[in-house]
Amino acid sequence: MTGDGPGRSHGRLTISASMRPRSLMDEPPRVRGAWRAKVITLFPEAFPGTLGLSLTGRALELGLWALETIDLRPFGEGRHRNVDDTPAGGGAGMVLRADILDRAIAAAAEGTPPDRAAWPVIALSPRGRPFDQAMARRLAAGAGVTLICGRFEGIDQRVLDHHAIEEVSLGDFVLTGGEIAAQALIDATVRLIPRVLGNQASTEEESFSAGLLEFPQYTKPAVWNGRAIPEVLLSGHHARIADWRRDMAERLTKERRPDLWRAYCAARDRDPVEDREL
User: Fold this and answer.
1) What pTM was estimated for this model as a whole?
2) I need a surface site. Which of 148, 177, 226, 268 has the fewest CB within 10 A?
3) Domain count, the chain
């Protein structure tokens, strides 16, 4: 066996059946039970995008996770396969139609568990709940996720209500569509899947893993441009290094993200305004 194929430790492979003709080269075999992402989008050509690069791309090739795009356009109406219409009550822009999106959601649901805890359906929206590391961990623990990439002025509220779709926001800003946000959400989730990064300890020490921002990182050379690596990091004293890293993570979080700092202190019955010597 060459180094390009998955080892035995990756588990058994499976190839899913589909009513749609496709080349066997279009979708690599995937590990049985591998986490899956289904993306409903008007621009399937945007995927995998950055998800096909580096560690996530390698994991995709090995079948540690799977990606399927559902093109919304074929579900449209009329000769031009229209998927949107003018907003009720007037106003600028267009709104994705409930009936069109409903058909696409039904197609995406094929082969997925009905339990939303195991397989959430999420619409990327600036008015949604902020995406965070805790949500990434929750999604990674499930079987997969269906993501709806919005366009235009938004999605007809009735289809969101009917399917109990969870709205999620990447931040307090507006994009032209949900494709970039979907890729960011998938990337943050996939990297938490066992064997994707190869070193699980790296996910345990990074930002937000303990509710804090990550401590500063350094590497060679020991002195660069007159700036030296903190002496404690070169001491070889693991307990002192751990204390320094925790203290620096707390300092950065308190200075840059007061919201995270308050939550961190509340979980540990600490006073967020305390003035500790860091």
Assistant:
1) 0.83
2) 226
3) 2
